[in-house]
Specification:
The structure holds 2 protein chains of 2 kinds. By secondary structure, chain A is mainly β. In chain A, 0% of the residues lie in helices and 51% in strands. In chain A, a hairpin with a 3-residue loop joins strand 4 and strand 5. Chain A is globular, with a radius of gyration of 13 Å. Chain B is mainly beta. Classes of the chains: A mainly beta, B mainly beta. The interface between A and B is medium-sized, with 26 and 23 residues.
Chain lengths: 113, 114
């Protein structure tokens, strides 16, 4: 199993550009989440999904969009990048509603200039 | 509401010394508690977890944590630090409700001096 994979590893965007961060898992997990990690703030939940076709907002959803058309994939879209979105983004998955153990991808380091 | 407080954003120990990373929680539901470790330029991985049962839980790499309800604490310890333990450590508590979301602390960066 590859676990949770994320692409790209690094990205630089200009303000106003859009892009999609990719996340995939091969563990057949129902739940998937996106977090951003900023210094001194820990991890904050952006969006999450409890199954294909079902998504919901986390703590900091503004400026981000998600969809979940398959169990495996959970892309995160930045609609119009802003410098405040400079961060490290982590995708995570967990098996189902009874499992709190999350498996994390390696992260995408995004810089918006 | 659930929350986690990690005391000390930076902790430095000597190799071979005791590691103690502090975590206090607040939870309106029976707490499920977790410690995750993040090595440089990597994602987080689970060190250990407490859900129910024995209050002293053992994790990977010689770490353990004790759930103390009376103190609302879940401190992480390791008797003897190794250079490879240098990383950032995150405490987390389950949010409760219909989802299985976790609330993470702000992290403690552990440095191990030779």
């Amino acid at each position: 199993n590859a676990g949770v994979t994320q692409t790209p590893k690094f990205q630089v965007l200009k303000t106003g550009q859009s892009m999609t961060l990719q996340c995939a898992q091969d563990m057949n997990h129902e739940y998937m989440s996106w977090y951003r990690q900023d210094p001194g703030m820990g991890l904050r939940l952006i969006h999450y999904s409890v199954g294909a076709g079902i998504t919901d907002q986390g703590e900091v959803p503004n400026g981000y969009n998600v969809s979940r058309s398959t169990t495996e994939d959970f892309p995160l879209r930045l609609l119009s990048a802003a410098p405040s979105q400079t961060s490290v983004y982590f995708c995570a998955s967990n098996r189902d509603s009874s499992s709190y153990e999350q498996y994390f991808g390696p992260g995408t380091r995004l810089t918006v200039t | 509401a659930q929350s986690v407080t990690q005391l000390g954003s930076h902790v430095s120990v000597s190799e071979g010394a005791l590691v103690l990373l502090r975590c206090n929680y607040s939870s309106s539901v029976p707490p499920y508690l977790f410690w995750y470790v993040q090595y440089p330029n990597q994602g987080l991985q689970l060190l250990l977890k407490y859900t129910t049962g024995a209050t002293l839980v053992k994790g990977i790499n010689g770490f353990e944590a004790e759930f103390k309800k009376s103190e609302t604490s879940f401190h992480l310890t390791k008797p003897s630090a190794h250079m490879s333990d240098a990383a950032e450590y995150f405490c987390a508590v389950r949010k409760g409700g219909a989802t299985n979301k976790l609330i993470f602390g702000t992290g403690t960066l552990l440095a191990v001096q030779p």
